[in-house]
Amino acid sequence: MVVSQNNHLILSPPNQKSYMDLHVTTYETADVYQCTCPNLVVFFSLYFTVLDVAESTWDDLVLGSESPVLVEFWAPWCGPCRLMHPVIEGVAKAYIGRLRCLKLNTDKNRDIATSYGIRSIPTILIFKNGERKETVIGAVTDTTLATTVERFL
After folding, report:
1. pLDDT, tens digit, for every residue of 128-150?
2. What distance in Å separates the CA atoms of residue 25 and residue 14, rounded to the nearest whole number?
3. Distance of alpha carbon 70 from alpha carbon 128, whole angstroms
4. Who has the most CB within 10 Å: 7, 10, 108, 112?
5. Is the pTM of this model over 0.85?
């Protein structure tokens, strides 16, 4: 999947020449995508609860976001990180349209993790207006995370 600068998501299945071009429009309740495939136009509504963010998309998705952003720094080998995934998905669903939830794999994006001083995972950073506002280190409950998020909405 590639996110272009004009809010288009280009989805290309592996080993196939076909693709889907999705134009993203955000509404209060969900992201609405206009899907344009060869010889087919379909309108549908869906949302991704927690998207991956990488060094290449960090500035657009995190620092350039108009809404507050929660970013989980994690790694596939981290047990407590896997425990946090459902908690963050629950927060993402509870605050859809008001909070963007993302996750960053620290094994693949070491420069971002280092620049924010991430020394243990899971670590959650909350950004508002492109500025880091809060840090939560370690596994926490959904109520603790929701209470933290509420301060920045």
Report:
1. 999 999 999 999 999 999 999 99
2. 26
3. 9
4. 112
5. no
| Tens-digit pLDDT profile for residues 72-95 | 999 999 999 999 999 999 999 999
Known catalytic membership, residue 35: no
Annotated catalytic residue: which of 35, 37, 81, 101? Answer: 81
- Tokens 């429009």 correspond to 25
Q: Following DSSP, what letter does each residue of 1-64 receive, concatenated?
A: -EE-TTSEEEE--TT-S--EEEEEEE-SS-EEEEEEETTEEEEEE---SSEE--TTTHIIIIIT
- Number of CB atoms found within 10 A of residue 103's CB: 21
Among candidates 18, 115, 141, which has minimal Cα distance to 63?
115
First to last CA, the chain: 29
Alpha-carbon dihedral of residues 8, 128, 49, 98, nearest 10 degrees? -100
Distance CA 98, CA 86 (A): 19
Strand order in the sheet with 51-52: 51-52, 100-105, 69-74, 123-128, 131-137
Question: Catalytic: 78?
Answer: yes
Residue with tokens 């995934």: 85
